[in-house]
Write the structure tokens for this entry.
Amino acid sequence: MSTRNSKLDPLDLFDIRSELSEEECMVKDSVARFVDEQAIPLMREAFEQHRFPNELIPQVAELGLLGSSIEGYDCAGMNSVCYGLICQELERGDSGLRSFVSVQSSLVMFPIYAYGSDEQKNRWLPAMARGEAIGCFGLTESHGGSDPGNMKTQAKRDGRDWILNGSKMWITNGTVADAAIIWAMTEEGVKGFIVEKDMPGFTAQEIENKFSLRASNTAALFFDNVRIPNENVLPGISSLKGPLSCLTQARYGITWGVIGAAQACLDEVLRYTANRVLFGRPVSHTQTIQIRLADMSRRITTAQLLSLRLGRIKDKGELNPTQVSLAKWNNCRAAIDIARDARDMLGGSGISAEYVPIRHMLNLESVITYEGTETIHQLAVGRELTGVNAYG
């Protein structure tokens, strides 16, 4: 004889929380409180004003969210699942907030930690963990982000220094960064350079008129004979493996982050449809709405299970980048479809920033594109299955 369980959490139907450790639950709850109490009240206005809420950075740093997976250097040393939960809760607030933490942690602090010298680590990592120094990551170029091997930015040796020329596009944190990790072609392979904001010939120009990630700083970077001392070159890597390994770290966080955006949309539409009365009854009492809500829940649950499994694999040191591609593809597609459907279910209210789906929907147009478009990740999985590289 079966008995009906107590009511399930509508945002966690498979009780993923029960699979988390005590530390993981504490991290999730502390970030959730910060997002609810500090971030969400600012995000609508920040989105409308096209600005990143810099006032949140000290609190983000105090919670240990910058470089959270790094051991030492004033970093929290959390596991990968904790980092994923951080991303999920931050993106429940706004993709721009999660992007800031992703870039600082996975694309700037990670390569310094993995490939940097002791001097570089000691100089930058503690300051970045405390939010006293901000970083950005430059790989994408205007002629095509999906083909990093075709980059035009080059660096040439000049005695003990390097001379850097070129440009990078769509760079999060670009105009506020104290240091930029810039990947460039050299005669010795692809190298990473720590370009400091005050180096002559380095300029950053903010990209205006965005209709996505408006609560995020995005820039174009330009390098005109920038002289970089050899001490600012990451010594531990001289190939595309360097930037691609950084992207694997960031993409992993994205698989979790978009779950938060999807949960925010489902939560909004659950409340709205319960209170919206049409033809004499709440619209949530209709079959059409219930089927659509159930489909949102199915997609969120699948994404949660994928990301949790991915995190456990990552923490065992067994992660394959193709697994990240599958999860990024699935979870971003699920989140953007949920956001679009939630926007539609709100009717005319769906286009108002009073409700979160339109903001998340617009943000997810960027998230599904950056750090590997959906097509790129589909082809990565296809290559794994067939052994044939079909890019191009």
User: Anything to note?
Assistant: The chain has a mean pLDDT of 95. Strands lie at 135-138, 154-158, 161-172, 179-186, 189-196, 202-206, 218-229, 277-278, 281-282.
